Automatic annotation (TrEMBL):
This is N-formylglutamate amidohydrolase. Residues 1-21 form the signal peptide. Keywords: Signal.
Length: 325
């Protein structure tokens, strides 16, 4: 949006049907919308540009926000192409987010918040600061659309629940083929033997959760386990019903089995979204590998494990008594 021009929202009801589901990711928004089963109750759209609704917000009823900044393939003519930085879409991440949201809904009978940017990264990168992610006034306008919408959603979750978790969904094609969880900690920091996890978690994008646990009387060990111990998102993704990490098809870093990325390998620690919002809510950047995203079976496996981890986090840290659902 330009300056302080207000965002106008249009409310409509979506019926629980396959046709209605696909409206969320219609057109060129994602090349996998035939397989998503998301059934949002209500949606809001930021004001359009070139008849394109730039931001999709699905209102939720959980202290969980799922964001997709790089999933769209929409290329509105009125926004000039960017010439620098990463320009390629994170393919199938909208489908991943929709499936993840649907599985969480099946568990809790209510949906998480979902915020999707409907403009291709070739035009605007909303996971970068505005001066890096935009090369035109038109691009800056829709960048503000996205972050104004997301900021309001973050503030709503904070006000309603007092805390919450934001999962920022991305994709990468690193040869290791692992799910990379970004906590604003570099690979070197995770590999360091001179810094214990109690200190690391205080520097991470889940520092609010660690602080809250310690204030509630939990031990330092419990807070330290949040990054790559038995209380972590990574452990919950890989663990089986007996409590052991046994998932060979989904490998996650950091986790007890893979506590850090190997030296010399690529690892994404979190971008602008993680940096901007982690002082209000806990944020984890989820970088899913191409090997899991590019097939229907792979996406199901990925989403099964992501949903399991999200439910673990909600049950243990954000909704221990579910009193505010």
């Amino acid at each position: 949006m330009r300056g302080n021009r207000p965002i106008h929202f249009f409310l409509f009801f979506i019926f629980f049907s396959t046709i209605s589901c696909r409206k969320m990711t219609s057109g060129n928004n994602d090349n996998s919308n035939k397989n998503n089963n998301q059934t949002p109750i209500t949606s809001f759209f930021a004001e359009d540009i070139d008849k394109l609704q730039t931001v999709t917000l699905v209102e939720g009823h959980l202290p969980l926000i799922i964001t997709v900044p790089h999933g769209s393939l929409n290329l509105p003519d009125s926004i000039p192409n960017r010439t620098e930085g990463q320009l390629v879409a994170d393919a199938y991440t909208i489908s991943v987010a929709n499936q993840l949201s649907n599985q969480i809904q099946q568990h809790y009978k209510v949906i998480p918040y979902l915020v999707v940017f409907n403009v291709a990264r070739r035009k605007v990168d909303v996971n970068r600061p505005i001066n890096e992610g935009c090369e035109s006034p038109q691009g800056r306008r829709v960048w503000k659309d996205y972050h104004n919408t997301l900021q309001k959603t973050v503030d709503t979750v904070k006000k309603r629940y007092g805390h919450g978790l934001l999962l920022d969904i991305h994709g990468q094609a690193h040869k290791e083929g692992m799910v990379e969880l970004g906590y604003l900690l570099s690979g070197d920091a995770l590999r360091s033997v001179s810094t214990n996890d109690s200190a690391l978690v205080k520097q991470s994008s889940i520092q609010l959760l660690a602080s809250r646990l310690q204030k509630s009387g939990s031990t330092a060990t419990a807070a330290a386990s949040l990054l790559r111990g038995n209380g972590s998102f990574g452990h919950a993704m890989m663990v089986n019903s007996t409590g052991n990490e046994a998932s060979l098809s989904v490998q996650v870093v950091p986790s007890p089995s893979y506590p850090y990325p190997e030296n010399g390998t690529l690892y994404f620690r979190g971008g602008y979204t993680t940096k901007r919002y982690h002082t209000t809510l806990d944020v984890i950047q989820v970088e899913s590998p191409k090997s899991l995203r590019f097939s229907k079976e792979g996406r199901k496996l990925l989403c099964d494990n992501l949903a399991k981890a999200a439910i673990f986090m909600l049950d243990h840290y954000y909704l221990p008594n579910r009193s505010k659902l």
